[in-house]
Amino acid sequence: MKIIRLLGLFVLGAVCALADSVPPDPAARLAEIRKLADSLKYQQGEIVLRGGVAKIKLPADFRFLDSADTDTVISKIWGNPHSSDLLGLIVPAGFDPLDPSFWAVVITFGEDGYVKDNDAASIDYDKLLAQMKEGSQEINKQRERDGYPPIELIGWATPPRYDQATHKLYWARELKFGNEPQNTLNYSIRILGRHGVLVLNAVARMAQLKEVEAATPSILAMVDFQEGHRYADFNPGTDKVATYGIAALIAGGILAKAGLFKLLWVGLLAFKKLLIVAVIAVVGFVKKLLGIKSDKKPALSPGPPPPAAKV
Q: Which SS3 state, helix, strand or coil, does residue 185 take?
């Protein structure tokens, strides 16, 4: 895989769509998704993710859904597009995909290469946030032209934190979509490995921040790369190095060859409305923002954050 897919990374090039259309027969639809929800096979104990890249050791108060069941939840129940990139779903015990009081963590893997973390200690996260907020003004102009409500980045719900010893990173943003009465929580966990990044994105409401925050240490402890895929296993003579660092990973990551971000879907089941956030950003603008060099072109000077693109 050449690019980060379904990234847990909110870029200020976000494009939002509300999946709130009413089905012709709501009762029949509810019965259909209830049947799907009841068919899910929850796993416990030790789980090896598809391809053997990473392993999850679930404590007693968590469950796991494999890639097939995760796709059932994400696409068939929550209404997102089908994706073959889903590795699984970590959920609290007793999870019900039809109950808005529950939250879940979607797992994917971005095989962009080894992400150097030497910039982690020097990042000014307040400055980065200010740049991202400034960029939202241009994004919302494009959103208005596309007929979408504006997205406002309220701020860090949890400032970025990086553990140099475990190479694990997490942060959270508070977002406001148009006139929605409830703000949205964009909670992101990243685990750096030899060939890429394990991407964990929490599906939750802003009101669930404390609950997700309290569970984060357990989530960080239960997920890790397998031997041979760990950060320490990196071979500088043969392994690919990602074209971005920690700052770009938080701001959105960079797809040096593909040029565009793939879709990031964060489902939020709130009452009877499913909120879907799609993220697409243009790599060149992120490079300008962070001053990152291209393989074939001179370094780009700092500039505006990435504009929105159409879904």
A: strand
C-alpha closest to that of 223 among 46, 55, 36, 45:
55
Other beta carbons less than 10 A from residue 12's beta carbon:
28
Cα–Cα distance, 161 to 171 (Å, whole number): 6
Q: Give start and end residues of each alpha helix (H) in the chain.
A: 26-38, 67-71, 125-145, 209-222, 246-251, 283-290
Measured in degrees and rounded to the nearest 5, phi and psi for residue 65 equal -115, 135
184-192: strand order across its sheet: 62-65, 88-92, 104-110, 197-205, 184-192, 168-177, 151-163
Residue 24 banded pLDDT, cuts 50, 70, 90: low
Distances in Å between the Cα of 213 and the Cα atoms of 185, 190, 229, 268 are 11, 15, 27, 17
CA nearest to 143, candidates 34, 16, 38, 39: 16
Whether 278 has a pLDDT exceeding 50, the answer reads: no
* Average pLDDT over every residue of 71-90: 88
**Strands (E) located in the chain:** 14-19, 46-48, 54-57, 62-65, 88-92, 104-110, 151-163, 168-177, 184-192, 197-205, 223-225, 266-270, 273-279
> What predicted TM-score, i.e. pTM, was given to this entire model?
0.72
Can you tell me the distance from the alpha carbon of 64 to that of 105, in angstroms, rounded to the nearest whole number? 10
Q: How far apart are CA 157 and CA 223, in angstroms?
A: 23
Domains within the chain, CATH numbers bracketed: 14-124+156-282 (2.60.120.1690)
Place of tokens 């409305």: 273
